[in-house]
Amino acid sequence: MTAPRRSWSLAALLASLAMLGTFSVDMYLPAFPAIEADLRATPLELQQTLSTYMVAYAFMMLWHGSLSDALGRRAVVLAGLLVYSIASLGCAIAGNIESLWLFRTLQGICAGSGLVVGRAIIRDRFHGPEAQRLMSQITMVFGIAPALAPIVGGTLLNLLGWRSIFWMLFVVVAALLGWAAARLPETLPPSQRQPLHPASLWHNYANVLTRLDFLLLASITALNFTAFFTYIAAAPTFLIDRLGVTTWGFAWLFVPMIGGVMIGAFISGRVAGRTSPWRTIQFGYVMTFAGAISDLLISFLLPPRPIWNVAPIMIFTIGSSVIMPSVTLLLLDLFPTMRGLASSLQGFVQFALGAFDAAVIAPWLARSLEALALGMAFFTVASYAAWLLFRARNIHKSVALTS
């Protein structure tokens, strides 16, 4: 039997599905002041459009994979895109902040389906090096999304108003729905589908969530993510109010940040197999601490300037992207027979903390550059403390792998 061949067209389709969550967050951030004024909402009320989205996104991370195991890959992706397009239309015509909350929540419920199910499609169809190469292709395409989304959003805001951002999302998702309907393969035949058994699923979730090593490793990734996601969640205040950037200038934050992510991912790939995960993670923490400490010094000692207030965030994201893959592999290795479920729960922990950050922590820290820098430092220290505790619990394995 001939092995399936990967292609850039499939990589582009799966990457586009995965990018939906990023575009749903980053694209409308430049429009916060305009939405606030038009809907007569308070800054906190507007911040809840982000946090309700994140809560819904995090919750559904638990279920997209299980639904696709039972109903098929295509059905879940196509249904998610259809509902997301309706939600985007609702956001575009929302007449009050309560309506925007509702439709942003509906977006969050659907936005992660392409990311979760896309990974399952890769695992269904490809194995070994071919799967790794396809993931690399997807990462190359996906990497442009966080940098592009706020730039596109800022341009639409200034040319056509904030509602045009959600009209654009509606048009893009409608086109993506047509593309997926025509080209997305069904990789799970009916004979291999699994019935949904909530009691059994809950038992497996409980087994994973009660293992201390899982909780420590999941905390590491979640805290690392939150350290720089705080700046994303607070981007309108951070850039416009604190640094004096216009709504055209959101690239000041997002381009260096994503540049750091891609550099860190490149370093992680280059050292894979040449050094142990333990040493790789230690190097990553050197970079994250360098970013956090320089952020503190710049915020407290220098006047606000985009070029040097953003540079430490880029340094931090380099370290974070070095840490994340190795920690994730250690986490998945805890559950060789339940790696999909463990991955879902890792995502849930990460995005649940992100939702709390967007709702509570980021608005509080955004009151000053110094507070934001202290927040990054706190999450960095907390993440490293979780790593030290995990390493202490697994000291014999650590010695074996680093010798």
What does this structure look like?
- With 403 residues, the protein is an all-alpha fold.
- It folds into 2 domains: 9-186, MFS general substrate transporter like domains (Growth Hormone, Chain: A), CATH 1.20.1250; 198-403, Up-down Bundle (Growth Hormone, Chain: A), CATH 1.20.1250.20.
- Helix content is 82%, strand content 0%.
- It is built from 19 helices and no strands.
- It has helices spanning 8-26, 32-38, 43-60, 64-71, 73-93, 97-111, 113-125, 128-142, 145-160, 163-183, 198-209, 212-233, 235-242, 251-271, 277-301, 306-333, 339-365, 369-393, 395-402.
- Helix 4 packs across helix 5.
- The longest helix is centred in the last third of the chain and has 28 residues, at 306-333.
- The protein is globular and about 60 Å long.
- It starts with 7 loop residues before the first helix and ends with a helix.
- Residues 399-403 have low confidence and may be disordered.
CATH topology of the largest domain: Growth Hormone, Chain: A
Helical fraction: over 70%
Largest sheet, in brief, is: none
Determine the structural class based on helices, strands and strand pairing. mainly alpha
CATH superfamily of the largest domain: MFS general substrate transporter like domains
> Regions with pLDDT < 50 over 5+ consecutive residues?
399-403
Radius of gyration: 21 Å
Architecture per CATH nomenclature, i.e. the level-2 architecture of the largest domain:
Up-down Bundle
Summarize the helix and strand pattern as letters: HHHHHHHHHHHHHHHHHHH
Short synopsis of the structure:
The chain has 403 residues and is mostly helical.
